Amino acid sequence: MANDEVLRIIKEAARYKSKELHLGYQKLTEIPTEVFQLQNLTSLYLRSNQIVEIPDAIIQLQNLTLLDLSSNQIVKIPDAIAQLQNLTSLDLSSNQIVKIPDVIAQLQNLTRLNLFGNKIVEISDAITQLQNLTKLFLSSNQIVKIPDAIAQLQNLTSLNLSKNQMVEIPDVIAQLQNLTWLNISKNQIVKIPDSIAQLQNLEELDLRGNPLLIPPEVIETKKPQEILNYLRQLRQKQGRPLHEAKVLLVGQGSVGKTSLKKQLIHSKFDKNESQTHGLKVEYWPIEINENKIRLNVWDFGGQEIYHATHQFFLTKRSLYLLVCNCRTSEEENRLEYWLKLIQTFGDQSPVIIVGNKKDEQPFDINRKALLEKYPNIKAILETSCLTGQGITELRNAIMQEIGQLKEVYDPLPLPWFEVKEQLEAMTEDFIPYSDYIGICFNKKIPEEENQEQLIDLLHRLGLVLSFRNHPLLQSTNVLNPDWVTQGIYALLSDEILKTKKKGIFSVSELTRILDNQRYPEKRHHFLISLMQEFQLCFKLNQSQQYLIPGLLPKEEPENTDLGQNCLNFQYHYRILPESIISRFIIISRFIVLNHEKIHKQTYWRSGVILFHQEGSEIFNLACIKADFEDKKIFITINGRDQTRRLFLALIRDIFQKIHNTFANLEVSEWVPVPNYPNHPPLDYQELIGLEKMGVTELPIGKLRITVDIRQLLNGYESIESRQKQREENSMSNSSKYNFPNAKNVFITETNLGEVIGEKYATDPEVKSAINEVIKILESLQTNHPNVTETEATEIINAEFINLQTANPSQWQNITRNLLNPERWLQGGKAALVATAEHYVDNSVIYKAVLAFLDKFSEQS
Predict the structure, then answer these.
(1) Which element (helix H / strand E) includes 292?
(2) Is residue 783 part of a domain?
(3) What pLDDT was estimated at residue 73?
(4) Cystine design at 70: which of 47, 343, 429, 537 (Cβ 3.0–4.6 Å)?
(5) Within 13 A of 445's CA, how many CA atoms are on the CB side?
């Protein structure tokens, strides 16, 4: 039965003859009968209710083009659905449907069908008769086979069959010539048919999570050209297993990681072993099942200063040895900190926990609880490097786990393997890219495509570093990773830099810190550029000095309290990597193009003060600081109410970009209860979910108050940005951009975002900049109508590089008035997208231009 709020919404829709009706998240168990009287409806949204069936009365809604019944309890698609002849989009995902009825074939206008997350076991012939279907989503079902009849779906562009139980891909898939996106991840597929190479328009191929003998570094690109070329090389030339893996020793300082490594590899012990500073790598040849395997053993310094940089080396293709000191407690060993860090960066990589120094005291931890909480723990062992106890058992456990790592046996085409071996054997820390090309020719790899794919693969494997596409680092292209790691860790370990200089250094100081023979002066700028690329340091204003935030003093300055009337926001982490706040300090310096944002150089190890100004007036200050013990980051913004919401949006965008670089980072957003700062905060996403469900007030029993949810959320971001499916504003509330020959180009506040809508909607400079880009797009589209994605990227790069020199005023107009990160982030990009779609129809050239401008704005 419908509640009063639902009946009110339906009554209002009837009164205004609405074409859309949103009744999601209303706890409905059936579709209210009153809905079927709304003859003008074209879109009906009933997602996330508890509806169990679709009644025959649905046929009364003959004008429906979109029906969304996702996330309900529906078990059967009724025959009546076939009478909705105008339906173009049908979403029945996340229900309990077992079978697709034959009558669905009568929905000949259907272009989008979503049946994700049901219990479907086969793709019926009825689906294959939907000739106009362009998007078909059947992931997370129980499908075991792709029928040959799927070839009839000639208009299909997107097909998702992930998380099913399929074992093969039929050759007929190659007949879907319009397919641009194919997801068959997380099935049981063991072989990719040659015919899939015939899908000339395929832009993304997702094969992850299948038992394929393809390195994850190749599969995870999801680039069909690279994946298929790799398979083609294996077929044409003999393959050779990689037979290589990483063993990473991690843990707190002084627990005996280096001593353990020496016992494992050399059966030696030095009671005067010094602490490891930074990172040391050693090769360990072993034999498993008569196969010679090379282990790259990485010994990480456990001192706190190094933790922020470990993230670059904690990888998936690895076995982790988490070394602890038997003499100290579980808390002092920070066991769970390291286990969560491994999960964040290494995903489900196997872990062996090693309690070292067992000769002094038994390892006292809760084994059962840890094994239940972290299923990737494969063993918990005790050793003594002094007596040799437990070393043999640990060696055996390592060999057992390495033998089960699929990636160890992934094959490389034999010529590729030979190039890898030659690069690993080189004594030089650098070689020019031309020398690398020469090695490829000597190993019979003359094709440029193969040369580029191989160097990119070796880069992702961590065997070499290559920056051939980087504007600053491309001159020296093939690089020994050890040169980078040792150079960076030498800087981080320098006592003068850590204590007296407080993280500030000049280029000239590298002569004192680094080995002059291995790090000649001409390479110093290159090393600093690498550190900037890895977001480890930044240049101080226009000086020749640089700052490493990870070496800043821990002491928080006195002037960081921003007062009482502030906007507060929090991030809570399951594990808070120490690099997040230092990377934020580096990136946040230029939220707005060429505009220093750090207030009076106020920063410390775990925080920073930023400012927001317009003209010469500072409107807001923001204090961003981390509490590593509580695993939280706090954002506090004071000043002008009208601009602090924008300031928070810019700050959150930076954090979002940083968070997205982590594989499995668990982070949540929280806001304080208004006027009760000491009460536990509220889950921000929970509040947004409640708002979607139509809940207007949240009772808090302990405080004996209710919180107005919408009013609270409006203080943080606009309702437009929270409600992605909001109806567009009427034309009277729209901002209209008039360009020569434009085809009814209307850009609403929804498209532009709140700030553009209020601030830039009528700005002639924004119009001018977008118009310049449109002219470039039209010209390129005319001159290059049929290009590949790779060719388009090269054309765009060349075009904009030429523009900067040939027509600097035009380029300056675009960068200043459109690519300014504030404008671009807050709606400039959306405005360009909405406008350009009327000219270039989402072409390859258009996508390449958008990607170039997006990257340029972010780097700015």
Answers:
(1) strand 291-300
(2) yes
(3) 94
(4) 47
(5) 27
Residues 434, 474: Cα–Cα separation, whole Å: 12
With contact defined as beta carbons under 8 Å apart, do 566 and 638 qualify?
Answer: yes
| C-alpha–C-alpha distance, residues 719 and 340, integer Å | 35
* Separation of CA 618 from chain center: 34
Render the burial of 53-75: b for 16+ CB within 10 Å, e for the rest.
ebeeebbbbeebbbbbbbbbebe
Give 51's Cβ-side CA count (13 Å radius): 27
| 562: in domain | yes
Structure tokens at 164: 């099913």
In the numeric block, which tokens belong to residue 292? 């010679």
The count of domains in the chain is 5
Percent of the chain whose pLDDT exceeds 90 = 30
The per-residue pLDDT for 736 is 28
Name the residue among 313, 365, 357 with its Cα closest to residue 334. 365
CATH number of residue 538's parent domain: 1.10.10.2200
The Cα–Cα gap between 595 and 650 comes to 14
More confident site: 820 or 804? 820
533 and 598 inside one domain: no
Q: Which domain holds residue 754?
A: 734-859
Average pLDDT over the chain, rounded to an integer: 82
- Residue 102's pLDDT band, with cuts at 50, 70 and 90, is very high
Q: How confident is the model at residue 258 (pLDDT cuts 50, 70, 90)?
A: confident
What are the structure tokens assigned to 759, written together? 């601030």
Percentage of the chain modeled with pLDDT above 70: 82
Least Cα distance to 324 among 268, 277, 255 occurs for 255
Model pLDDT, residue 271 = 77
